[in-house]
Amino acid sequence: MNNNTFVIVTWNNEKEIELLIESLIKYAPGSSAIIVDNGSKDASVQVIKEKVNNYSIRLLEPKINLGFAKANNLAASEVKTKYITILNPDALLSDMNLQLAFDDLKNPDVGMVGGQLMNLDKTIQPSIYAFQSPLTIFIEQFGLGIILPQKLKNKWAPEKSNHDFKRNVDWLVGAFLVLKTDVYKKIGGFSEDYFLYSEDMDLAYKLKLKGLERVYNPQIKVYHIGGTSEKQDFTQKKRFKLLLAFSIFAKKYNLQANMPTLYISYLIKTIIFLPCSIINNAYQSKLKDYIGSVKYIKRIMGK
After folding, report:
1. What is the reported pLDDT for 227?
2. 112: left (phi over 0), alpha (psi -120 to 50) or beta
3. What residue ranges do the domains of the chain occupy?
4. Cα–Cα dist 193/70, whole Å
5. Which residues pair with 114 in a beta bridge?
6. Please, which contacts does 190-194 make with residues 24 or more away whose CB atoms are closer than 8 Å?
7. Which of 79, 252, 274, 286 is at a distance of 20 to 30 A from 293, taking alpha carbons?
8. pLDDT digits (tens, 9 = 90+) for 132-142
9. Class of domain 4-127+163-225 (CATH, top level)
């Protein structure tokens, strides 16, 4: 009996979505999928339609880019199964361990389960994070997590911590998330305040406010192709989108010190890199990014 529906949002993912569907056929044959295509210009829709006969897929085509949150919520509104699994189009299942997430969710105190994200070479991607606060922002901005003792890493910089043991966490990367469908719907799904970035942190925060735990289970392993490319292709434009999402999160939950902490952090980095850029031209690009970020944060704080 099908008790799980994968919710997937595509946007120009013709190569990745084919691989993903093949992994669903192999490792989750008893589930189904609802895929929302956000107005792709490539062959994503055609590839999905060609796979409909091989897997239980329902394709929704709004013809425009709804953004990550709204598209996921559109698909989730059609889900009838007990469980819903949010899955990035550039992710791949690697084993039959999805049942472990369902087992964890039998505990009424657990609201969401995530797994261990991996690169294709099986090296581990950061899969878990702490909620933003002045302390965690400062630690992240200056790369201090790497030098913290393991116990403090687990609390304040979990992305730098050992990823090989099961535990409760603040939030999990949204490339792979499993929830009870009724819980997802009761908390309103992904917040549509965001168009891109921070939706996964926000979802976890809503669960926290409901007293529900977020569980990281490393026995569930998922390949995430985009985790590497996103990191390598992190432009200033993407940084601004991320900073805007952080601002929305802070305002929404009245975390008033978050954005000033980000502003001060980028200001300090600008001051540090200013003399470095005079000595070595290689630092000028980084300095330009920091100056731009300082100006942008100041602007969005003033809104």
Report:
1. 56
2. beta
3. 4-127+163-225, 236-301
4. 9
5. 177, 216
6. 190/68, 190/69, 190/70, 190/72, 190/73, 191/69, 191/252, 192/67, 192/69, 192/70, 192/73, 193/69, 193/248, 193/252, 194/67, 194/68, 194/69, 194/245, 194/248
7. 252
8. 999 999 999 99
9. alpha beta
